């Protein structure tokens, strides 16, 4: 499925020259109907853009309004930006600490999930054993679990294991939701990778393990990046597990810290929207650079629940 | 090929870790559902099927099930219709196609919390943007949290906004796999745009759509965060679903056994659906379907 | 060496049994402590101890006041204190989650008797009778259970009705003495345009949460229907009680028509912000509204007034209310927590009260005479309001003080369950969201109260 996405990417770049190519010839032959179709298409495209991005724009815009204007102003311009919501967010709330926690969780989830899933997925495609299909099917199963089915027993088990209210416990939870997905993704990737390459390396005297490290993994970089990105997303966006497993202020992650601002005695929409923008910001940056891996993961049935 | 013991070792290790952190809680949850445990400190008491009997005899359970199904089905229908429409538009050639395609999937990657906060901000009955927009057209703002229909509709619309890009992306990939010759043949036969859609596009997307519908349906049914963040199950339990009910029981009413029972029941229902799904679409073919 | 008494010389005089017992225990602990921290500059009994506080006062000022106090305590006595915060609406769930996980907090701020009583009955908290007995308190301020006081209040949260004096003047209205007059005033001040309520007559919350339990039933209490008889039979739907309760629901339904949209999601914060932004002419809340006005809309801070909720006949008025106070959980460190609380009360109580100068309406009567507290410029500015608020808690006050969790012949778990199950808020919802008849709503509520026992 990675191929299909790079295929679509290719097609996009192919399409641009073809449009400019045919321009002169096409314009003459264009009937009124075709022009109307063209206008309709661009109108639909504009509508899709507004639908997809306007709410996000509105969040960013509102976070940049001064507190006096926030509740009254509904203009679409944010200039001049007012950073007071951001300032008070950083000063008055635990946001910086929450940010650090979220980053730690995400990094650890990426590292462990990518490593473990590559072991499992590689074994599942290359080793000969009974019940392979069952194993892979159970991955599909596992990432369809109701989250509450995992978190209720986890809250009890972590208590017994001394992991209550601990980021280690939360890491385990994040792994439990990201590992099945990661294995599923990489399984598809390794399966479509020709066996000849490793066999050639092994003929040259490499062990299977050596071939895995030296040949398979480097060639799987796109798949690993996709897995990394989706592990990051699952951990970064998680609300349910952090809500239930974490108690202390200094261990909260961003989504929970942010949501708990809503129930407070003072209404802090400015700070809430500033915080929401700051959660989304790293995602936008990664998204811009890794767009094609996002698409690859999505079409692989890869999914944040 | 000779099997390398290191590969075997790492594989088994990985499977064990995965099995422990996913399978362990799963089994423990089933075990908990047979006990009453108000807290984690007191020893739990065996009650057999007591929790199940109690849960299944509550009207709230059945109401929640119905709410969950209603919300999931409405969200799926809208996501698919909207997703296919958007995909068909984005599949045409136009200037800036790449950028627009990228823009259209941004909502999917937004953390749910952020999406829900944006919604609440825009829908705020007194300060929200929508209120200003309505007022400028001379209409009154509706009270979205005030009745069953509008509260459910809000949850559905937010879910549709977040998760439609998944449908769009899968359908776009699916569209690529439909051979151009089919369209040409249809055109030769004199089929118009609508006919081409019904007789070529939709059949070509069949396998993709079935997978998408099942996956999204299951996730919608499991959704906790959107509902909890938007309505907390209100008003008057009209948006209570099995996940929020399980949460309420386990963590607000301190009835771990009851919560585990609700979660287990919804898991069993889903598991049977997934099993049917795997029977109809064996896993290898399902993957090729994309 | 017993640092706890340093700040409180006055308390030495009446060391009670409990104090003495505690003293003995800590002496034993002290020996270990000294051995463990020879290099410590202070000889103290508690080094190495970390106390955990759950704080539901989440405004920036209150959080920093508490943090400062904790830092000072740590530097003086070497006791580390970790403060976790929770929105007030989630305080009970969080406390219970910590208890159920076997790691209760040591100290918490708690608002509702419903919850404090549940902790006390389940043996989760320790009595603070000796601390409480040192002072005299306002009306109902020292409620006890099994002869002990279970929390150390710092404020009353009386739910008064805030109204706009300027608007009253404009329309020639007067402070209402009956339900009908209140409704008339709300109607007169409602401004609707294009189907939107531009300015609501009032806001009285409706959501299934503690805010509604706390703030929405002043008018009901003024008419004083009984929820239970003397033997704890539910009589809310019996003749004599069903009538006034049903009429109260009709009143609410009429008032509801003057409220802005979104009552079902209105909670603590919105009750204030709607009034402070001029979106409603009346709101129900405690003194924090004044703080919100000063912070957001200083102009309005000179134009508000308060009154107690009237009854239907103009005979008496009532306030729904709650306290806020400190509770001590039963932990291995209760002694250390007790010392901290004692120190905090002696050294920081007033600074704490000042962190929410109007909302923290003192429950301890001596504070009203204390110049350190009284001289706060904002309290001075709003002294008239503060005096009015105090008049409600004087022993000879005729204003009824009541709360959902305190109804019934004595303090008991039963009304607490009514509170936690949101039965009364849902009675309102049945009336205005489902359009059930008032008598059916009352009947349904009474049945639910019977059912939860």
From TrEMBL, chain A:
Entry annotated with the keyword RNA-binding: no
Stretches that traverse the bilayer: 39-60, 99-123, 135-161, 167-190, 269-294
Membrane topology annotation: Multi-pass membrane protein
Domain of life, per lineage: Bacteria
GO biological process, one term: transmembrane transport
Keyword list, A-Z: Cell membrane, Membrane, Transmembrane, Transmembrane helix, Transport
GO cellular component terms, semicolon-separated: plasma membrane
Record bears the keyword Nucleotide-binding: no
Annotated compartments: Cell membrane
Protein name: ABC transporter permease
From TrEMBL, chain B:
Transmembrane intervals: 7-30, 65-90, 102-123, 153-175, 196-219, 256-278
SUPFAM superfamilies: MetI-like
InterPro entries on file: MetI-like, MetI-like_sf
UniProt record, GO biological process: transmembrane transport
Localisation: Cell membrane
Keyword vocabulary terms for this entry: Cell membrane, Membrane, Transmembrane, Transmembrane helix, Transport
A GO cellular component annotation in the UniProt record: plasma membrane
Domain of life: Bacteria
Gene3D superfamilies linked: MetI-like
Membrane protein topology class: Multi-pass membrane protein
Residue ranges constituting the ABC transmembrane type-1 domain according to the UniProt record: 65-279
Membership in a protein family: Belongs to the binding-protein-dependent transport system permease family.
Name assigned to this protein: ABC transmembrane type-1 domain-containing protein
Biological source species: Afipia broomeae ATCC 49717
Highest classification ranks of the organism: Bacteria, Pseudomonadati, Pseudomonadota, Alphaproteobacteria, Hyphomicrobiales
TrEMBL record, chain C:
Protein name from the UniProt record: Tat (Twin-arginine translocation) pathway signal sequence
Family: Belongs to the bacterial solute-binding protein 1 family.
GO cellular component terms given for this protein: periplasmic space
Tagged with keyword Transport: yes
Organism: Afipia broomeae ATCC 49717
Domain of life: Bacteria
InterPro entries: Bact_solute-bd_prot1, SBP, TAT_signal, TAT_signal_bac_arc
Record keywords, A-Z: Periplasm, Signal, Transport
Principal location: periplasm
Subcellular location: Periplasm
UniProt cross-references to Pfam families, sorted A to Z: SBP_bac_1 (PF01547)
């Amino acid at each position: 499925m990675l191929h299909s996405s790079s295929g679509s990417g290719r097609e996009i770049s192919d399409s641009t020259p073809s449009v400019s190519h045919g321009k002169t010839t096409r314009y003459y032959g264009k009937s009124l109907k075709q022009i109307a179709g063209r206008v309709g298409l661009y109108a639909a495209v504009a509508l899709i853009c507004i639908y997809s991005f306007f709410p996000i724009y509105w969040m960013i815009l509102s976070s940049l309004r001064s507190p006096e204007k926030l509740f009254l102003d509904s203009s679409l311009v944010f200039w001049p930006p007012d950073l007071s919501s951001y300032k008070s967010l950083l000063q008055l709330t635990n946001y910086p600490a929450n940010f650090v926690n979220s980053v730690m969780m995400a990094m650890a989830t990426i590292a462990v999930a990518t490593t473990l899933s590559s072991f499992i997925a590689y074994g599942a495609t290359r080793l000969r054993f009974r019940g392979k299909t069952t194993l892979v099917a159970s991955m599909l199963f596992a990432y369809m679990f109701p989250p509450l089915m995992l978190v209720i027993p986890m809250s009890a088990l972590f208590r017994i294991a001394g992991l209550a209210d601990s980021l280690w416990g939360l890491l385990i939870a994040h792994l439990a939701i990201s590992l099945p997905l990661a294995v599923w993704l990489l399984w598809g990737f390794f399966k479509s990778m020709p066996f000849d390459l490793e066999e050639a390396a092994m003929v040259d005297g490499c062990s299977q393990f050596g071939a895995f490290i030296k040949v398979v993994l480097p060639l799987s970089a796109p798949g690993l990046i996709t897995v990394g990105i989706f592990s990051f997303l699952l951990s970064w966006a998680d609300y349910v597990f952090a809500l239930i497993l974490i108690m202390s202020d200094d261990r909260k992650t961003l989504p929970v810290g942010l949501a708990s601002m809503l129930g407070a005695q003072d209404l802090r929409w400015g700070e809430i929207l500033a915080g929401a923008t700051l959660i989304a910001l790293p995602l936008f940056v990664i998204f811009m650079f890794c767009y094609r891996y996002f698409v690859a993961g999505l079409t692989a049935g890869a999914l944040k629940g | 090929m000779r099997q390398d013991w290191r590969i075997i070792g790492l594989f088994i290790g990985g499977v064990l870790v995965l099995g422990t952190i996913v399978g362990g809680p799963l089994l423990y949850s089933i075990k908990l559902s047979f006990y009453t445990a108000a807290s984690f400190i007191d020893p739990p008491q065996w009650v057999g099927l007591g929790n199940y009997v109690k849960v299944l005899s509550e009207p709230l359970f059945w109401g929640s099930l119905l709410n969950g199904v209603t919300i999931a089905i409405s969200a799926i229908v809208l996501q698919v219709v909207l997703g296919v429409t958007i995909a068909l538009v984005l599949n045409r050639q136009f200037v800036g196609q790449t950028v627009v395609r990228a823009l259209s999937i941004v909502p999917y990657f937004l953390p749910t919390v952020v999406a829900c906060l944006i919604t609440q901000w825009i829908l705020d009955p007194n300060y929200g943007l929508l209120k200003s927009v309505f007022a400028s057209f001379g209409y009154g703002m509706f009270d979205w949290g005030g009745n069953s229909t509008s509260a459910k509709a809000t949850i559905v619309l937010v879910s549709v906004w977040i998760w439609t890009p998944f449908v769009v992306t899968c359908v776009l990939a699916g569209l690529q796999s439909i051979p151009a010759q089919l369209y040409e043949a249809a055109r030769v036969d004199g089929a118009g745009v609508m006919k081409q859609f019904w007789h070529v596009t939709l059949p070509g997307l069949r396998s993709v759509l079935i997978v998408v519908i099942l996956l999204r349906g299951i996730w919608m049914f499991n959704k906790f965060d959107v509902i909890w963040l938007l309505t907390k199950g209100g008003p008057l339990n009209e948006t209570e679903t099995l996940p929020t009910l399980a949460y309420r029981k386990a963590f607000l009413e301190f009835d771990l056994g009851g919560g585990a029972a609700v979660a287990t029941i919804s898991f069993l229902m889903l598991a049977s659906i997934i099993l049917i799904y795997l029977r109809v679409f064996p896993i290898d073919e399902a993957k090729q379907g994309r | 060496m017993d640092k706890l008494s340093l700040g409180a010389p006055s308390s030495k005089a009446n060391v009670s049994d409990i104090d003495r017992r505690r003293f003995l225990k800590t002496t034993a602990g002290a020996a270990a402590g000294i051995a463990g921290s020879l290099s410590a500059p202070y000889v103290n009994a508690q080094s190495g101890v970390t106390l955990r506080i759950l704080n539901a006062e989440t405004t920036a000022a209150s959080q920093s006041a508490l943090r400062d106090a904790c830092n000072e305590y740590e530097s003086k006595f070497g006791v580390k204190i970790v403060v976790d915060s929770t929105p007030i609406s989630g305080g009970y769930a969080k406390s219970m989650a910590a208890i159920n996980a076997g790691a209760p907090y040591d100290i918490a701020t708690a608002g509702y008797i419903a919850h404090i009583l549940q902790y006390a009955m389940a043996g989760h908290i320790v009595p603070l009778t000796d601390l409480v007995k040192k002072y005299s308190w306002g009306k109902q301020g020292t409620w006890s259970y099994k002869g002990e006081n279970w929390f150390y209040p710092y404020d009353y949260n009386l739910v008064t009705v805030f109204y706009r004096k300027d608007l009253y003047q404009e329309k020639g209205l007067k402070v209402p003495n009956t339900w009908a007059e209140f409704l008339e005033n709300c109607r007169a001040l409602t401004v609707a345009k294009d189907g939107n309520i531009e300015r609501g007559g009032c806001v009285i919350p409706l959501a299934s949460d503690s805010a509604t339990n706390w703030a929405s039933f002043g008018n009901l209490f003024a008419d004083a229907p009984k929820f239970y008889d003397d033997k704890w039979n539910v009589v809310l739907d019996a003749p004599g009680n069903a009538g006034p309760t049903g009429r109260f629901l009709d009143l609410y339904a009429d008032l509801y028509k003057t409220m802005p949209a979104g009552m079902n999601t209105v909670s603590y914060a919105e009750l204030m912000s709607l009034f402070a932004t001029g979106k409603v002419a009346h709101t129900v809340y405690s003194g924090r509204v004044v703080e919100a006005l000063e912070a957001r809309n200083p102009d309005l801070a000179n134009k508000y007034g308060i009154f107690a909720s009237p009854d239907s006949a103009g005979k008496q008025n009532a306030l729904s209310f709650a306290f806020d106070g400190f509770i001590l959980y039963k932990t291995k460190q209760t002694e250390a927590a007790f010392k901290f609380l004692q120190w905090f009360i002696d050294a920081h109580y007033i600074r704490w009260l000042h962190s929410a100068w109007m909302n923290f309406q003192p429950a301890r009567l001596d504070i009203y005479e204390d110049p350190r507290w009284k001289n706060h410029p904002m309290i001075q500015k709003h002294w008239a309001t503060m005096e009015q608020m105090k008049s409600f808690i004087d022993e000879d006050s005729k204003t009824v003080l009541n709360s959902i969790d305190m109804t019934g012949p004595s303090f008991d778990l039963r009304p607490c369950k009514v509170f936690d199950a949101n039965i009364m808020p849902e009675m309102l919802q049945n009336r205005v969201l489902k359009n059930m008849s008032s008598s059916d709503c009352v009947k349904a509520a009474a049945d639910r109260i019977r059912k939860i026992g």
